[in-house]
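Quick log. Single chain, no ligands specified.
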Amino acid sequence: MSTSAIDAQDATAIQAATTKVAVCDRSFWGRIRVSDVDRIRFLHNQSTNDFQSRKPGQGCDTVMVSSTARTIDLVTAYILEDAVLLLVSPSRRESLIQWLDRYIFFADKVQLTDVTDDTATFSLIGPESDAVIKHLGAGAIIGQPDGNHLVLDNQVIVAVGSGLATPGYTLILPVAEKEKLWQQIIELGVVELSDRAWDTLRILQGRPAPDAELTDDYNPLEVGLWQTISFNKGCYIGQETIARLNTYKGVKQYLWGIRLNAPATVGSAIAIQDEKVGKLTSYTETTDGYFGLGYIRSKVGGVGLKVQVGETEGEVVDIPFVSHQYPE
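-> predicted structure:
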């Protein structure tokens, strides 16, 4: 995935998201409502995180994986009183509903509903997001863990977490409330962050995206999504492969950030002295230069490593959204 040269408006919005507060309309992302009595058990068995230990008002990031633990999507789940609401990547909305539906068996009491068109999603991003949340009447959520959420009188869900590594909040609301709430936020002086600027930020921070970092070629440990994986919750799709990789320290490649000296092309080989050690999966240009994400073989090293990306030189750097530490 590639984002080309950044314009002044995007640069201003990225600066606001980093130092003050910006708002991004993520309504084109998918929203799937999972309801009925078996919903928690069902999701517990279909993805990497632990749903059964979580209560209404809580949430988590989780990864949907294939039976061989290849990544399908990084999903944020919000546990409501009567359902679980899944926020999914735009390109995975339809395929995830079909994929989940395949695993609902005759006796399972689980209902899947695509509520994307009936709802909207905004992300508030930046260290000054708290002031906006207070103004909206959701101050009680400030300081709570990521994924925790409350529901306002107008049915707006306010959840901790911006969807990026930067602090912030995610709002999920009835589509009828969209225009009014957006105007309310903009009138507070919040800067609008475009989809393109969001993509630049997600690359700089290392949030993986479908068809780029999340594909049939990679598993969640290679991506570095440790925070989404429960190693003691028991059986789920892909669990055996993930457990084996963890037990035998078998992760062969990791996702890293790469600070580049010049433009590069997604798909380019990453090499050290003519030996291919990985592949560039995303690329963006910023006011500070050129930046990419790529998988690099774990045996060759990590932060500080000097690499060749196509015709360009680069240096491997940390990205805050992911982690390559085995959990203690």
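The mean pLDDT is 94.
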